[in-house]
Amino acid sequence: MIGVIDIGISNIGSVLNMFKYVGHEAKSVSNASELEACSKIVLPGVGSFDKGMAKLLDSDLVETLNKRVLEEKIPVMGICLGMQLMCLSSEEGKSPGLGWVDATVRDFRKSETPPKKTPHMGWNHVEVKKSMKLTADFTSETRFYFVHSYYVDCTNSSDALLTTKYGNDFVSAFQVNNIIGIQFHPEKSHVFGAAIFEKFGSM
Amino acid sequence: MINSRVIVHLLIKDGKLIKTRRFGKNKYVGDPINAIKIFNEKAVDELVITDMTATKNGIDYALVHKMATEAFIPICYSGGVKTEADAHKLFKLGVEKVCLTSAAISNKPLLKQLVEIYGSQSVVVNINVKKNFFGKLKVFDAERKKNTSLNLIEHINSVVDADIGELILTDVDKDGELCGLNLELLKYVENVSMPVVINGGMKSANELVDASMKGASAVMAGSCFVFHGPHRAVLISYPFGGGYKIMKDIKNK
To answer: What CATH code would you report for B5-252?
Structure first.
């Protein structure tokens, strides 16, 4: 069973619906005992970094999350802000992140070559940086829906799973063993997003 | 690089899908949930949903919830957003972006508050534009169905200052007329740092090419995706592959 974390920082309806659509069982999770019962976790999120982190700390899930992700190493997928919360810190706020991945979150507007338009909003392409199950069926047509002003900067370039060009090339997905972070919204990227959900569910 | 988008605009009145002409008389199009299912299959770039009766009746959260859950495509919601609590509920129900029109004129603190809490990328402003008697562009009030005294450029500057994530410019006189987008409007946003969407009058999604060259990040339309033929028979359609395909075909020519 896939547990989709529901702590009020994101609508999880479309995430649950997308899993149903691709034929994987998923349910919402909002307490530690429900989290213990899952074999995989999805951490979706929208909004600002500090607010998201505060909600996560308020939820009393962090300790169980750390145990399940870092010790038991069950597959976890962070989406959008969920990915950013897995990092050490963010230029958007003051709170430390979960620190699962050696990466920081940066502001497009403060990058070396800032893009002409911020936020990064709309459909963009990805370059596959390492061959993993999640990206097995990608083609040159594959594209995803992005909506964000901050991006993840990985300390170890080998952690990057996908990069995307917007101003600089930035990390649009990372994978460090069982930990996956995705900057775009697969639940809103119709056929291309459905493929990711299908693959994650069968990992 | 990022793809330019072709956005579908769905207009809701008392829970039904309709389409207006020049913000006036309207025609019944169908059931909104059914329309979203069809647009899902057609893999559209994005949906903007405007509930024109939400200001009067209150936001129909049950309908928004059904629409957002049904959609495997991004949704921007517009209509009747008056407080931070309204926006909070909408985001929780699963819309990616919230769009303000009237409140962007009358309630600048709300605009700034939403940007601060939810981030620029979640906050969109729509400006309805209409020429006045003297040919000057004014900001149109869709509720009272008349022009305000607001000057377009001043209003653009004031919402841009609030650090919003996206700006939609709607030409009221072209709405539903299938006469082509008013790309002249892009002249007023040349120096704007956020994505700009042009709306009103589009007859073909291929207008994206021109719009994109002139600086638009997206084009938006209702009628050309829900009507077919001179008698405006209801037929939902959308160009396969959306903005990505249109721009790619042009590059390959």
So the answer is: 3.20.20.70
